[in-house]
Amino acid sequence: MQNKRILFLGTHAQMNIGDELLLETFLNQLGAENLYYINSYDPAFTAAQLADRFQVEVFHTVKERSKLMRYLGQCDLLFFGGGSIIKELYPSTGRHPYSTLLMVLALVSAAKQLARKPIIMSNIGVGPLMSQRGHQLARWILRQVDVVTVRDEKSYETCRRLGVPPERLQLVPDAVFANPPSVFLDGVADKERPRSASDSPGLLKIALNLNYDIENPSNWETFRQNLADGLHLLAERHELEIHALPMQSHFKTMHDARVLDEFQALIPSLPFRRHAIQNHQDVARVLAECDILIGERLHALVIAAILGIPFYGLLYDIKVRELVKSLGMQAHAVDINRPFDPAVLAEGVETVLQRQEQIACHLQQRSSAFRQELQTYFASLEERLPRTVGR
């Protein structure tokens, strides 16, 4: 796309590295020739993030809703970029289950019914939708969107059940897969690049990522204990070093860094290293130091896959289950919403380590295929709009 005025909406400046990476990825794919109106919980942060690379006007998500409506009238296109947009919220978030759905419905209805703007929802996740009311709200939203592309098969199936016609619906990978490894490892020294466990047989370095907002919050404490017991079983076979990898370190009360710090109390005998994680390159540096990732967050797993870092997945919700399935890694993951035998996790990690080189190659091949698919998708995206948009 060129010379468009795009109102680009997402979850920005909540200090979630995956969300900030999605924003940069979409703008890189859509092009620097456009003018973007972008919402943010910290406009100064987002403006600085994108400075000198894109033409942007940033407004506060909550405090400047009058600007949102003005930009809606000025824009050529309303674009929702990535993330789980059409969903009910889990009880662990502490928010009303329909708050996201109602907010998106209001925006989409204003754009379509009042401003008469074309709407794209690109590389999104749909679900969880756990109630009849949630399904109805999702149906009202999606029937007004001109182009819907979803990042997993479950979301695609859900959209079809909700009545989205196939000509307006497409299955594509998560947008972050559009990035080659160089985006993450630029400036990382060779000695820090991914290595095999055989290079350091006496020490097993595990990157650990945790996220509090699981589908079944009643199993959280049981999961933490199962995970701790599994790591202790691994410690009987290996000298371990745990590297904390928070994908979110601010904004909400139970952010990843806090969750990891609290988890350390369950494994006081194991070496535990904290890292200051500010961006996706920091994530890559930690992953490059380690032999394996044990993680929940979707974009921690996506970055690991792009870099060819073997992982053992902690399946906390639908989007991570679907990602792991799309990568062909179902055998190397465990559902953390119900109790599991710690020995299952320990043996699962051992299996990944034994197949490390094979899994690394597999992940790189899958990521490369996804990247090519996304290049084709973004190149043809404008053609799918119902009418020409422009200044």
Structure, explained:
- The protein has 391 residues and is an alpha/beta fold.
- The chain folds into two domains: 5-178 and 370-384, 3-Layer(aba) Sandwich (Rossmann fold), CATH 3.40.50.11720; 182-369, Rossmann fold, CATH 3.40.50.
- 42% of the residues lie in helices and 17% in strands.
- The model is unreliable at 189-194 (pLDDT under 50).
Strand and helix map with partners:
Blueprint: E1 5-9, H1 17-30, E2 35-40, H2 43-50, E3 55-60, H3 65-74, E4 77-81, E5 84-86, H4 99-114, E6 119-126, H5 132-142, E7 147-150, H6 153-161, E8 169-171, H7 182-185, E9 204-209, H8 220-235, E10 240-244, H9 256-264, E11 272-273, H10 280-289, E12 292-295, H11 298-307, E13 311-315, H12 318-326, E14 333-335, H13 342-354, H14 356-379
Parallel strand pairs: 1-2, 1-4, 2-3, 4-6, 5-6, 6-7, 7-8, 9-10, 9-12, 10-11, 12-13, 13-14
Helix pairs in contact: 4-5, 8-13, 10-11, 11-14
Number of domains: 2
Query: Architecture of the largest domain in CATH?
Result: 3-Layer(aba) Sandwich
Fraction of helical residues: 40-55%
Which H/E pattern describes the elements?
A: EHEHEHEEHEHEHEHEHEHEHEHEHEHH
Task: Output the CATH homologous superfamily of the largest domain.
Answer: 3-Deoxy-D-manno-octulosonic-acid transferase, N-terminal domain
What's the CATH topology name of the largest domain?
Answer: Rossmann fold
Taking the alpha carbons of the first and last residues, their distance comes to 12 Å
The gyration radius over C-alpha positions equals: 21 Å
Q: If you average the pLDDT, what whole number results?
A: 93
Low-confidence stretches: 189-194
Secondary structure class reads alpha/beta
Largest sheet: 8 strands, parallel
- Strand content is 15-25%
CATH class of the largest domain: Alpha Beta
